[in-house]
């Protein structure tokens, strides 16, 4: 007796449960900003919603529709999520040294406890 997994079953076995995925912060903020921008076709709405939920759960701040900012390097973590979802070519990740009016972002990150006062010294 043996068990054979169908193609559909194999794809289900390989699916990752993203409901608890969270991007963790680095130990110390270096003053750089990481910006995630995406524009996905409608057929990828479930993947877009999943990505958005992970970003929000991880403490990213939404600055515009489909534009999120985070104070810690997150390229590897976001890339793993994107590669698994197959949407990486619809997403940009940028590092920025300066964001105008960044004090507003800093306040949001401190209020949400993503940044601590010791990160700002």
**From N to C, what is the helix and strand string?**
HEHEEHEH
Largest sheet at a glance? 4 strands, antiparallel
CATH architecture: 2-Layer Sandwich
Q: What are the segments in which pLDDT stays under 50 over at least 5 consecutive residues?
A: none
- Biggest sheet strand order reads 2-3-1-4
Class of secondary structure makeup: alpha+beta
**Percent helix:** 25-40%
State the shape: elongated
User: What is the CA–CA distance across the termini?
Assistant: 65 Å
Please state the CA-atom Rg, rounded to the nearest Å: 17 Å
Enumerate how many helices there are, as a single number: 4
By CATH reckoning, the class would read Alpha Beta
Protein name: CRISPR-associated endonuclease Cas2
GO molecular function: RNA endonuclease activity
InterPro entries: CRISPR_associated_Cas2, PaaX-like_central
Domain Transcriptional repressor PaaX-like central Cas2-like: 27-100
Model description:
This protein has a single domain, classed as 2-Layer Sandwich (Alpha-Beta Plaits). The protein is built from 4 helices and 4 strands. Strands 2-3-1-4 form a 4-stranded antiparallel β-sheet, sandwiched between helices. The chain is elongated, with a radius of gyration of 17 Å. The mean pLDDT is 85.
């Amino acid at each position: 007796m043996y068990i054979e997994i169908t193609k559909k079953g194999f794809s289900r076995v390989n699916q990752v449960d993203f409901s608890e995925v969270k991007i963790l912060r680095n130990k110390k903020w270096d003053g750089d900003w990481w910006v995630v921008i995406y524009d996905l076709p409608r057929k990828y709405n479930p993947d877009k919603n999943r990505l958005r939920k992970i970003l929000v759960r991880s403490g990213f701040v939404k600055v515009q529709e489909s534009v999120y900012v985070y104070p810690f390097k997150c390229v590897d973590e976001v890339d793993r999520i994107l590669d698994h979802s197959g949407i990486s070519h619809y997403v940009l990740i940028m590092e920025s040294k300066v964001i105008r009016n960044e004090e507003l972002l800093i306040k949001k990150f401190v209020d949400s406890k993503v940044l601590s006062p010791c990160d700002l010294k």
